[in-house]
């Protein structure tokens, strides 16, 4: 019974009704890259632009006050969605990437020095690697990577030992891998890190859209995610930080809104959250994000997680049973709705193109995780990633289409002749 609202939700997504270039009905399995938007989100943004849009905070006039109220209400919705203690611990940024860069530039530049260690995992997205490498270029710190084991997992013992050995100032890791699908035990690792006096940053880009997240329960110091992966607009995301940390950090971008007072001799900084929101913020995007969060909350994050899990199980089992197909990632009990795979003798791009002919959208390449791919010794993978509006039928269509692609590009018994 709890599944029906998820299936019914398809009607709220106009794009899911379209066909692709070949004329086949769209089967959208590229949700880890970005999700689609329901009418509620499109309408909320349209309503803002049509009826009350103006710049926020500054103008004492009706439209500005209405926009400001809607923008700040969106912050409240976002704070509730992730279980923040107070609204101003939620900073609106341009996305997960912008959020991590903000922490690296402000907390990092202030607290990290030569020889200090930042601990990451090998499965991080480039967004949670490169800003720390840039910090290392600026301040001379070191970066250590936790390896994954043969089952694509990292044990608590490995985490514990690395924290003990390297005594990192920061442990930054993904709550859910965008390639392996692995869901890391955030609360446990955060506790271990805190026991070793490390600050913890969670890349929750692949977690917040797919399961109930509570940042206070995690006890994480920083949590980042993007709006567009949770049915919200592009160009907006969240940096959550514990108030004590955010208060102690210098601002990042300078300009309007982030100041208390400016004189020719200098400036003083505004209080949270304005301190980290210089310039005109993404106003309609915040309003759209709040509408998206309300939409997925109504469907229920537990329902969403269960449904995705079942689709993942079905896809994972089918892929593992196919000759010449290798799943890159743990068994479904250890992951969310992401399945990456390789097909013998067919490049990931050809797999993707072949599936597209049947209307099926999957991603191919390194998925912004080149160190992980290098570690696994592969250059490219294909990835199917599910969201609540996908169906078991779509999973079956994907598998049937993949079998066709395999037959076409790498027919069995006709191996290429050696020269
Ligand atoms: N981290 C992870 C795990 C991701 O999957 C992504 C998006 N692919 C990001 C960070 C970066 O998000 P964005 O591009 O929206 O800033």
From TrEMBL:
Listed under catalytic activity are:
(sulfur carrier)-H + L-cysteine = (sulfur carrier)-SH + L-alanine
| GO MF terms, alphabetically ordered | cysteine desulfurase activity; pyridoxal phosphate binding
Q: What are the coiled-coil residue ranges?
A: none
Keywords attached to this entry = Pyridoxal phosphate, Transferase
SUPFAM superfamilies assigned to the protein according to its UniProt record, in alphabetical order: PLP-dependent transferases
Cofactor(s) demanded: pyridoxal 5'-phosphate
Task: Please provide the Gene Ontology terms (biological process) for this protein.
Answer: cysteine metabolic process
Q: Which residues form the Aminotransferase class V domain?
A: 27-398
Q: Does the keyword Transferase apply?
A: yes
Q: What is its EC number?
A: 2.8.1.7
InterPro entries documented for this protein: Aminotrans_V_dom (IPR000192), Cys_dSase_SufS (IPR010970), PyrdxlP-dep_Trfase (IPR015424), PyrdxlP-dep_Trfase_major (IPR015421), PyrdxlP-dep_Trfase_small (IPR015422)
Q: What class of enzyme is it?
A: transferase
- One family from Pfam that matches here is Aminotran_5
Q: Where are the transmembrane segments?
A: none
Q: Which family does it belong to?
A: Belongs to the class-V pyridoxal-phosphate-dependent aminotransferase family. Csd subfamily.
Family matches, as PANTHER family: CYSTEINE DESULFURASE (PTHR43586), CYSTEINE DESULFURASE 1, CHLOROPLASTIC (PTHR43586:SF8)
Q: What is this protein called?
A: cysteine desulfurase
């Amino acid at each position: 019974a709890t599944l029906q609202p998820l299936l019914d939700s398809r009607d709220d997504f106009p794009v899911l009704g379209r066909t692709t270039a070949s004329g086949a009905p769209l089967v959208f399995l590229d949700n880890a890259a970005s999700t689609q938007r329901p009418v509620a989100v499109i309408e909320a943004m349209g309503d803002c632009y049509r009826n009350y849009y103006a710049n926020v905070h500054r103008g004492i006039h009706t439209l500005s006050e209405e926009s400001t109220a809607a923008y700040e209400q969106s912050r409240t919705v976002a704070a509730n969605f992730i279980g923040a203690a107070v609204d101003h611990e939620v900073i609106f940024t341009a996305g997960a990437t912008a959020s991590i860069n903000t922490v690296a530039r402000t907390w990092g530049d202030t607290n990290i020095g030569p020889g200090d260690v930042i601990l990451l995992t090998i499965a991080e997205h480039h967004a949670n690697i490169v800003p720390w490498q840039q910090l290392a270029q600026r301040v001379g710190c070191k970066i250590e990577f936790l390896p994954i084991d043969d089952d694509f997992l990292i044990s608590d013992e490995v985490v514990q030992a690395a924290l003990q050995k390297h005594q990192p100032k920061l442990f930054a890791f993904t709550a859910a891998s965008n390639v392996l699908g692995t869901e890391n035990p955030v609360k446990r690792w955060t506790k271990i890190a805190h026991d070793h006096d490390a600050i913890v940053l969670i890349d929750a880009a692949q977690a917040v859209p797919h399961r109930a997240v509570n940042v206070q329960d995690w006890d994480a110091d920083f949590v980042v995610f993007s709006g567009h992966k949770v049915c919200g607009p592009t160009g907006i995301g969240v940096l959550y930080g514990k108030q004590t940390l955010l208060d102690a950090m210098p601002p990042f971008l300078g300009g309007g809104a982030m100041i208390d007072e400016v004189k020719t001799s200098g400036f003083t900084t505004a209080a949270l959250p304005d301190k980290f929101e210089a310039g005109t913020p993404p106003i309609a995007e915040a309003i759209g994000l709040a509408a998206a969060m309300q939409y997925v909350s109504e469907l229920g994050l537990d329902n969403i997680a269960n449904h995705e899990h079942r689709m993942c199980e079905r896809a994972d089992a089918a892929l593992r049973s196919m000759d010449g197909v290798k799943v890159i990632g743990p068994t479904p009990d250890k992951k969310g709705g992401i399945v990456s795979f390789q097909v013998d003798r067919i490049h990931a791009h050809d797999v993707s193109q072949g599936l597209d002919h049947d209307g099926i959208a999957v991603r191919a390449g390194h998925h912004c995780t080149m160190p992980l791919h290098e570690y696994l010794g592969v250059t490219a993978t294909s990835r199917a990633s599910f969201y609540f509006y996908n169906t078991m039928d779509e999973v079956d269509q994907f598998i049937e289409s993949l079998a066709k692609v395999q037959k076409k590009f790498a027919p069995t018994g006709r191996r290429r002749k050696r020269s």
